[in-house]
Structures are given as C-alpha cells and as structure tokens.
Design goal:
Strand content: 25-35%
Distance between the termini: 8 Å
Helix content: 25-40%
Number of strands: 15
Low-confidence stretches: none
CATH class of the largest domain: Alpha Beta
Mean pLDDT: 93
C-alpha cells in the first residue's frame, strides 16, 4: 500500500472512475458492512456573517478492518455547506477527503472531496434504483440543475439503460436548458432525449424516476402528482429544515434510506414522522439490507418507491479506495 502522499485532483478522479464501476464498488461495500466501522457523522451548524447565512460543517469518518481485507483504509471527509454562496459566485459545497492506511495510520492522499461526493452520491442513488425502479423505466425527471444533476442523470442511465427521455426542471429555467444542451452533446449519452421543462407537475406526472437534488426548504414534488410505479429519489435535504417532497409522497411510497441517519436529518422523513404520517416501522429498509438481499425492493410495477439519501461515510470510503487502488495498484 505504498505511495507518496499527495493531492488527487478532480480531473485525475474522473480519468479513472466510471459510473458502472463505482455502482459495483458501492454494491460490494454495502454487501460487506461488517468489515467497515462507520460512526455517526459530526454535524455542526455555523453562522457566516459575510452573507448572514446558516451554514453547516460536516465531519464523516469511516475505516475498514485490516485483519479482514487486504485493502484496508481509514478515511475522513470534511465538508462545508454554505447555501447562499451562489450570491458571490462560489459553490455551496466544499470538501476534502483524507485517506490513510488502516495498517499503519500513515496518510496516503487527499482527494477532491466535492468531486468524490457528487460521484458517490449519484452512484448510491443509481444503486438504489437497481432495486427500486422499474426494469423498463423510460422517463427520468431531474429536479435541480446544479452540480449533482449531471452525475445523477448519467448514473441513473447507467443503472437503467432503458431510460430514453430526461426532463430537467430548475427554479432558474436557463440553467436547466443549459444542462440539457450540455448532456445532449455527450456522445456517451447518445439515444437519450434531453429537454428543459417548465411545468414540474406535468413532468413528474409522466415520470418513471424522479430525482431531486436541491437545497429546498419547501416541498417541490407533490405526492398527488406521482403515477403508479414511479421511483422517487431524494438527494438534496440533509437537515430537518429542508425537504423536496410533501407528506403525501412519503405516505404513498415504500420508503428506503441509505442509512438510519436519514431518519434524523432529512426534513421529508423527520417531518412525516413527527406529524404521524408514517411510523419508523414504515421505513422498509436501508441500502445495505437491499444489497445483502435482506429486504425486497420493488415488488410490483404499480407501487411507488422512495429512496432518501443523506450521505454515508461508507460511500466515501469505498469511492476513495476505488480511486486510490486504480491509481496506485
């Protein structure tokens, strides 16, 4: 596990990653959670006086057991979320990931945490969709056109090659149009029709998969819009004050999460639990249980499924390990 300590840039990460390979790596990681320790992440509210905004500091550790695997690592991600950074031309999310040897504790590399996060988040959603979306899903609606959106779209297409139409909605319509144009020029996505849409209700009502990646504090997707058989993928919210769908969407769906932290952090589920819309027993399972075959995903073509992710340090560690192994052998 030798290798000089250094920075692995976003471009170096993109050079070795593919959506199918990372989906497979996450499938393997979630199937072997007994080999990895994943403490609860540290979540600290911050105040930025510059923009008078509520910000968040996240610290996410995880480590694998060197006695049980030949490639054992320790990893820590430090991330900040400053929602109003767009007002000064900066990204809302910044992050760095430190990877260390689990055998010696020696640092191995620092990875671009933002790039790592968008890849692992998108591929976790795509992995969940392999269990929860219909086999012949054709239409994907992407709610939000930020940094996560192109990764979520491409990862979902990798997981469900039957997808042939992608409708993109964004509060600022021109960003949705720009993303649709960008993706339409990608030769790897040939055969998929990308369109900006202005009527979210109409788009959602025809969707087979609805993926949401926003920082919204008000519900964007209403349960009454969801057609039978749709899969709802909620990525954006990570505090109780944030939510991307209403109570009716949660009530109608068989609900799955990436980890139990979603029940404490995601506004959609925290609110629905507090209001008695669902009980903890209505959350069918997590991504590990799906990957291990301990819980059944989609059961019929008519049921509505929902996957809520808030991010998991296991995903970060598995992604960083895959990148490091590809670059250093």
């Amino acid at each position: 596990m030798a290798g000089a300590v250094g920075l692995i840039s976003a471009s170096s990460m993109r050079a070795v990653l593919s959506y199918p390979s990372l989906i497979d790596a996450l499938q393997s990681a979630f199937s072997r959670t007994h080999l990895v320790s994943v403490p609860d992440r540290h979540h600290y509210p911050l105040i930025s006086s510059a923009l008078d905004q509520n910000a968040t500091l996240l610290i996410m550790p995880a480590w694998s057991d060197p006695s049980a695997t030949s490639n054992a690592f320790i990893g820590v991600k430090i991330a900040t979320v400053f929602p109003r950074n767009n007002l000064i031309g900066l990204p809302a999310v910044s992050a760095s990931y430190l990877l260390l040897s689990a055998e010696t504790g020696a640092p191995l590399c620092v990875l671009d945490g933002k790039e790592l996060t968008v890849w692992r988040t998108a591929c976790a959603s795509a992995l969940a969709a392999t269990f929860l979306a219909k086999d012949q899903a054709h239409t994907l609606v992407m709610v939000g056109a930020g940094a996560m959106a192109p990764h979520l779209i491409t990862a979902h297409i990798a997981a469900r090659p039957s997808l042939n139409t992608v409708l993109i909605w964004n509060k600022t319509a021109h960003k949705a149009a720009e993303l649709a144009d960008q993706l339409a020029k990608d030769s790897a996505l040939k055969g998929v029709d990308f369109k900006e849409c202005s009527d979210l209700e109409a788009a959602v009502s025809r969707a087979d998969i609805v993926s949401c990646a926003t920082l919204s504090e008000v519900a964007l997707v209403e349960g009454g819009w969801l057609k039978p058989g749709v899969h709802l993928d909620l990525v954006g919210s990570f505090t109780p004050a944030m939510k991307e769908c209403d109570d009716e969407a949660v009530r109608r769906a068989r609900v799955f999460v990436d980890s139990s932290m979603a029940l404490k952090e995601s506004g959609e589920l925290v609110g629905a639990l507090q209001r008695g819309v669902i009980s903890p027993q209505d959350v069918v399972g997590d991504l590990s249980e799906l990957a291990k075959g301990e819980k059944i995903g989609r059961q019929t073509d008519e049921e509505v499924t929902l996957f809520k992710s808030v991010g998991c340090a296991l995903e970060d560690l598995a992604t960083a390990a895959l990148i490091y192994s590809k670059l250093h052998g």
